[in-house]
Design goal:
- By secondary structure, the protein is mainly α.
- It has a single domain (about 1-255), classed as Four Helix Bundle (Hemerythrin (Met), subunit A), CATH 1.20.120.
- About 65% of the residues lie in helices and about 0% in strands.
- The chain has eleven helices and two strands.
- It has helices spanning about 1-5, 10-35, 40-65, 70-95, 105-125, 135-145, 145-150, 155, 165-180, 200-215, 220-240; strands spanning about 130-135, 185-190.
- The chain has a two-stranded antiparallel ribbon.
- Helix 4 (about 70-95) runs parallel beside helix 6 and helix 6 packs across helix 11 (about 220-240).
- The longest helix is centred in the N-terminal third of the chain and has 26 residues, at about 10-35.
Amino acid sequence: MTALRRRFPRPSLVMLPNGFTLANLFFGVFAIVAAARGDHVQAGWYIVFGGFCDMLDGRIARATNTGSAFGEELDSLVDAISFGLAPALMMYFAVLRHAGWDWILVFLYAACAVMRLARFNVESAGKAKAYFKGLPTPAAGGTLATYYWFSQTPLYNETFIGGWPWETILRFLMAGLAFLMISNVPFPGWPKFTFRTVHGTAGIIVFFASIFALFFLPKEFFFPFGILYVLTGVILAVVRGVLELPSPFDDPEEDDENGDSRFEESRS
């Protein structure tokens, strides 16, 4: 009987990680509604809240041993909405609807997000990964969704970048994030939370720093942090290419406990 209990978790535990996944969906839909109403600041908040739910569902599933193929597929479908369609529509309602064919960027971004998730499910779902092929969809969605925030801050408007045309930058940002999602550029995965390794300790520090920034410096922190992550992946890829170093995807030792499994596309 004890063995059976260990093998088949209680239904309440099975639903717990999926509940966080559906909470992510709730915030993604709410972000679209808020953006349609012209409340772009609140829309950015909802994407950030969805990102935290997305970060937790896989970890809860592993901690409770309740991972499943259903949860894996549900997570990817929700990510397509919360980090693919929702951020793109946010930018449409904020800027792109004022020009004729700029809405094509919404399609381009959403299409690349969906293809990124589909490729992840085919190639990597259920495997622990230290690196991800292409920019993870949640990272791209969070970076795009918080760009409007950052453009309204004194850090942006009272510095040398304040004179830059942020509406034009937005178009290049959407196209660049879309391309990176379907590229083969390796991006580091979020490490497993543990004090046993430097990588894991750094992950814990960054996580709690993000929680701190959520309450005290959200508009000044999240977009620069997202850009830093994007640039880190691109720069490391360029360095590997210049030095002719092997790709991390060619090294099986890179796929270890430092990566997150199953739903790491969110955590991806």
